[in-house]
Amino acid sequence: xxxxxxxxxxxxxxxxxxxxxxxxxxxxxxxxxxxxxxxxxxxxxxxxxxxxxxxxxxxxxxxxxxxxxxxxxxxxxxxxxxxxxxxxxxxxxxxxxxxxxxxxxxxxxxxxxxxxxxxxxxxxxxxxxxxxxxxxxxxxxxxxxxxxxxxxxxxxxxxxxxxxxxxxxxxxxxxxxxxxxxxxxxxxxxxxxxxxxxxxxxxxxxxxxxxxxxxxxxxxxxxxxxxxxxxxxxxxxxxxxxxxxxxxxxxxxxxxxxxxxxxxxxxxxxxxxxxxxxxxxxxxxxxxxxxxxxxxxxxxxxxxxxxxxxxxxxxxxxxxxxxxxxxxxxxxxxxxxxxxxxxxxxxxxxxxxxxxxxxxxxxxxxxxxxxxxxxxxxxxxxxxxxxxxxxxxxxxxxxxxxxxxxxxxxxxxxxxxxxxxxxxxxxxxxxxxxxxxxxxxxxxxxxxxxxxxxxxxxxxxxxxxxxxxxxxxxxxxxxxxxxxxxxxxxxxxxxxxxxxxxxxxxxxxxxxxxxxxxxxxxxxxxxxxxxxxxxxxxxxxxxxxxx
Length: 547
Prior knowledge:
Helix content: 25-40%
Shape: globular
CATH class of the largest domain: Alpha Beta
Low-confidence stretches: none
Number of domains: 3
């Protein structure tokens, strides 16, 4: 493949060689708006011209607050072309966190795109210019659609220099204030190149973007990856149209997180219960037809690579999909290593692991089992946090991930826990909850799960029931959880054995602050809310308690 020296040079290559190819496709108002490489370049250059009227010093920080949409990518390109550093902000964040990021990053302007609740977020934006996109119903002082008619195209776009910061990504954070991870032009370029070497793609593939572009995986793997391969990116209109938009797109690559795979499975089983599905799959011709129909309905008919990351995916779920001839490749990475860490591959896929070191990455384990990564796209550090930055690297320059893992005899890595997630019961014994939670999540009645136990003799299980679980009576659901606990306890150490389960009365969501924007449970937040109840729950006679 052709190797570009920056994301901007990659985009400009396709803009000049394939100007009429579709680059961005936006589902909206029941229809679709498209932008060719040429059309996109035209709008981006005009917005970059306007940004230059702010007369900012080179490499100034410009924030970007939006859900995934065509204008997210165009805004990012405009910031690059104007020679500045982007500060993407998760679109679900509350005003106080947005204000922290804007203040901490010293952002000099902000581009606001597609949002669900801008009115509640707007107070966070103070004393800086706001560019908004009218298409998504937001009208600020500077409107994108007006600017592209008023401004000329930028004649001399900024050259992206390897060592310059391309972005500061504020981690979604399961604890405390978010930290600003600094990545350079070089690290993004190297990361995308390494990803394509790891998972080769033909030119001009079709991508579908729905995981937050504010997160490094979607940003590097999809947005920058699309620039490197001349891909088209399709954006769904909403959560309600997500499934139909995905089915219509049939992308060549699909990347999701465990919660998405669980939701897909749940919806399939609503229409086709497991017993009936099992019977149909055993009939040769009918089984083949059913598999093809399900893959097409999910939008996966043309997917060369079907990927999962961000959190562990249960082995039972992966095996269930495998029976439908949907092979999910699980990988592992983080913002700080630009997701170049470990990955399973089509020819080397071991279910239950996160694979072997990816192309461009070297890994090692410390004596304590902490995973450490070295590659050519590690972060330059945390913005304004030199001490925290120094703590992240060992004396050989390896990034210390904070995750605990082990390699099997074939070199596949399994994540066994996260150092920060471990907790101590009042017996003084430490517990890593992740492997236990992963095993229990096989139960189809469980949607979300969090094992806690600080200050009580034995751990207890906090559970949000699945759609299937909610259909059951309290007695049936209780018995299902009791059976699951009875089944797993003999496999656990004495101090790990689960005493009981507590059924949560509300789902953990991004909106109520109990999940990160990448759909990981905020363990510390869940614990903080419920910790006062641990002792009374533990002392209760019932084995399953309804909150």
